[in-house]
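input
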Amino acid sequence: MAITDEHINRINELARKKKAEGLTPEELEEQAKLRKAYIEGVKGSLRSQIEGVKVVDEEGNDVTPDKLKKVQAEKGIHGRTLEDLND
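output
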């Protein structure tokens, strides 16, 4: 599920209601599902940002960790290919 502004608004609405008066079992379940989807979205976004990082030293040499280079090659990021890793 892609998180929309409506989802964020509903998460906040449920949080306010929980604090003020409590939630029904159905609302607790809805809140848990929305929170899980939100957290997964944040994790995915962070993963994408990290996978896009290219580390370069002061001399301009690519010093990106091999593990990250492999992920980038698998996804074709920064023009990397799996064949490049074998060179």
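quick obs: The chain is about 65% helix and 0% strand.
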